[in-house]
Amino acid sequence: MKKITDLTATEAGNFFLKGSSYFNGDFPDYISFEPMLSEISAILKGANFSNFKKSNPENIANVNYCFVANKDGRFAWRPYELMHPAIYVSLINLICSEEKWPIITARFAAFEKENIKCCSIPVVSLDSQSDQATQVKNWWQEVEQQSLCYSLDFSHILHTDVTDCYGSLYTHSISWALHGLEESKANKGKGGLLGDKIDSHIRAGRYGQTNGISQGSVLMDFVAELVLGYVDELIATKLGTANDFRILRYRDDYRIFTNSDLRSEEILKIISDELRTVGMRLGASKTFSSTNVIEGSIKTDKLAGIDLQDLGETNAKTIQKQLLRLHSFGRKFPNSGALRRLIGELHTKVIDQKVNPDDVEVQVAIALDIAVVSPQTFPAIAGILSHLISLQNPEKKIELWNRVYKKMSMVPYNGYLQIWLQRVTKPKNVGIEYLSEEPICKIVNGESIDLWNNEWISSANLTKALQPSKIVVKDASKTAEVMESSEVELFRKNAWAY
User: Fold this and answer.
1) d(CA 209, CA 57)
2) What is the DSSP letter of 1?
3) DSSP 258-321
4) How far is 299 from 195, CA to CA, in rounded Å?
5) Which residue of 24, 183, 197, 286 could cross-link 179, Cys pair, CB 3.0 to 4.6 Å?
6) d(CA 458, CA 124)
């Protein structure tokens, strides 16, 4: 793997233009934003979006496209925001220019401190694994493994994280992070600083708001790291030359290592104070401490998941019993990383079933309820359902998929789930025309609908390049009825090492 700050300006630009960087979640493989981004990049030719505008997008609503993923099947939601592609590409042109990229990488180098380590700079895969899988591997190496090593020197660990990090980030602090507070204040309103230009790009797609950045792209992860790196610098200044602690930060998650509760709480207060300067605050509900660093360094869901690594095959020999064990695990650790890995492993086992099970309705019911409680597992659950239901006769297929649809419709704000539900009902062999109010689903169904507000654009060629139908890169109805593990598998091997 390689940190993005170690890339050349051109390499970084190409990395951000990848479809998996534009949206770093999972979409069915017939949806891709990469061809559109490439076409827009060819039209902009390294220029700013302002060269193609007839009005200021900052004064227009819905320039970016937002959709919601449900986190708990009830009232916890995660808003995803697809930046307007023209503004997104323009921001890449700005950040990854030969002149500006060294300024940014130099600031990241300046943020590096001996006692405060950032472990979440976006990384690039150098092998067959996806960038997303490589990022998780980096977390395992830099956070979990290093935390265990710190048990040799420290007796206490305190965990805390930021509440609504992306939604609360004060965009003017981007300039502070790049140029320092004094220079930024002195040049306020002049628009000449790189930080102000980045700020302007972000606000252009968000109705001029100064609170919050979009969530869902590696580019915005990178911007968030810039601001959080600046906060690291402020924290380091406050703590001075003291050497009785270590801090590991993975984006908005902090781990503080000390030898006393009092010292941990002193450092926690400093972190809280400095985060408030950029609009952020810590979440009290997710702040906890332990006097055993080994125990406190490993997530409880992972420890519990290790016990289920073989899905309890000794005592749970059937798929139904294994599903029940995962259902119980999911109730205790909903949406956890361990649950998602276990579901992925079961998906692989289920598709190896060649015989139509007698208890197919029961298996469907249990699997679907896991997804209702833990919606982030739904892509893999959808794969399991696609196999189980494919074994039925046409009438039974339609009946079961309609029941699945009805059940998932009870989950509020489930646009992301609907995209995956469309994936498993769209193939011709299924025989269901899935109707959804989610705009991306409508585009896949061939409807003419806009994702982004383009009324501010003056260029006909740019407007043409932004036709949403271009995100559908192949006929969804011709996709395989049964989802292969590769469609939703994060790791190709050794998943349990991470």
Assistant:
1) 12
2) -
3) ESSHHHHHHHHHHHHHHHHTTT--B-GGG-EEES-HHHHHS-HHHHHHHHTTTTTTTT--SHHH
4) 37
5) 183
6) 35
Return d(Cα 344, Cα 347) in angstroms, integer.
5
Taken in order 122, 125, 130, 136, is the CA torsion positive or negative?
negative
Within its chain, how far is the Cα of 365 from the centroid? Answer: 28
Strands (E) located in 52-98 = 65-70, 77-82
> Smallest Cα–Cα separation from 280: which of 234, 336, 216, 218?
234
> CA–CA separation, 347 vs 352, rounded Å?
9
- Taking the model in full, what pTM does it have? 0.93
Note the pLDDT of residue 484.
85
Taking a C-beta distance cutoff of 8 angstroms, is the pair 437, 486 a contact?
A: no
- Cα 306 to Cα 327, 338, 348, 495: the distances in Å are 16, 8, 18, 12
Distance, CA of 72 to CA of 334 (rounded, Å): 7
* Dihedrals phi, psi of 410, to nearest 5 degrees: -80, -15
DSSP 470: G
* CA-wise closest residue to 85 among 474, 464, 419, 420: 464
Residue type, 286: K
Through-space distance between the first and last CA atoms of the chain, rounded to whole angstroms:
15
Q: How far is it, in rounded angstroms, from Cα 470 to Cα 464?
A: 10
Query: In sequence order, which residues have a C-beta less than 8 Å from that of residue 129 and are 6 or more positions away?
Result: 137, 491, 492
DSSP symbol at 393 = -
Q: How many other CB atoms sit within 10 Å of the CB of residue 467?
A: 15
The DSSP H or E segment spanning 120 is none
Buried b or exposed e, range 112-131, using 16+ CB within 10 angstroms: ebebbbbbbbbbbbeeebbb
Positive or negative torsion for Cα 220, 210, 462, 32: positive
CA separation for the pair 134, 458 (Å, rounded): 40
Q: Using alpha carbons only, what angle is made at residue 201 by residues 465 and 130, rounded to the nearest 5 degrees?
A: 65
pLDDT < 70 positions in the chain: 70-76, 309-316, 413, 489-498
Closest CA to 339 of 298, 296, 378: 378
In single-letter form, the type of residue at position 460 comes to A
Per residue in 73-119, pLDDT tens? 566 677 889 999 999 999 999 999 999 999 999 999 999 999 999 99
Distance CA 27, CA 34 (A): 13
CA distance 7 to 18: 15
256 neighbors 263 (Cβ within 8 angstroms): no
Closest CA to 322 of 376, 266, 384, 373: 384
| Cβ-proximal residues to 199 (8 Å cutoff; 6+ apart), any chain | 171, 172, 174, 175, 210
